[in-house]
Amino acid sequence: MSFDVAAQAYGAFMGRYSEPLADRLADLLEPVPGARALDVGCGPGALTARLVERLGPDQVCAIDPSAPFVAAARDRFPGLDVRSGRAEELPWPDASFDLAAASLVVHFMRDPVAGLGEMGRVVRAGGTVAATVWDHAGERGPISTFWRAVHDLDPAGPDESGLAGARAGHLAQLFTAAGLRVVRDTEVTVTVRYDSADQWWEPYTLGVGPAGAYLVGLPDQQREALRRQCVERLPPAPFAVEATAWCVLGRA
Question: Which residues form the Methyltransferase type domain (predicted)?
Answer without folding.
Answer: 38-130
